[in-house]
Design a protein that fits this description.
Layout lengths: L3 H25 L3 H9 L4 H12 L1 H16 L3 H7 L6 H19 L29
Helix pairs in contact: 1-4, 1-5, 2-3
């Protein structure tokens, strides 16, 4: 817990099914006759995979990589729970910046930070923001 390895293992465990499902759909779409033709021409299983199956499944590998990269960059709960409060990744970092920006805007409006309510009220609604004064240039 609270290590970089735990965060990496957690994100892989969460995102691995998306990669597997993407690859499965692409590999199932490859015609079985192509694989059988490679075997009939004397290719072994490793050669058939390297020279036939892998090049035909590259679009699925690319799509799965992009999908899991996006999901990994947007992960919020996994780094916070497994990495602790000091471990920074894109999701928690963006969340923290939004919280700082809310405080900065409130301070510019003249609201004391202790009087700030940054969360929803009991009804689940966020408070209406105060009107922003116009800047005179």
């Amino acid at each position: 817990m609270f290590t970089e390895g735990a965060v990496v293992a957690g994100i892989i465990a969460v995102n691995l099914p998306y990669m597997v499902l993407t690859l499965q759909s692409v590999i199932e779409g490859i015609n079985r006759n192509v694989e059988e033709a490679a075997f009939s021409l004397g290719a072994g299983p490793a050669t058939m995979f390297r020279r036939v199956l892998l090049p035909l499944s590259l679009p699925g590998i690319l799509a799965g990589t992009i999908l899991t990269f996006i999901l990994g960059m947007n992960a919020y709960a996994t780094p916070v729970l497994l990495g602790g409060p000091k471990f920074k990744m894109m999701g928690p970092l963006v969340y923290g910046q939004f919280q700082l920006n809310k405080l900065a805007v409130r301070r510019l409006r003249g609201v004391h930070p202790d009087d700030c309510d940054l969360g929803p009220d009991r009804g689940g609604q966020y408070p209406d923001p105060a009107p922003v004064p116009a800047l005179i240039l």
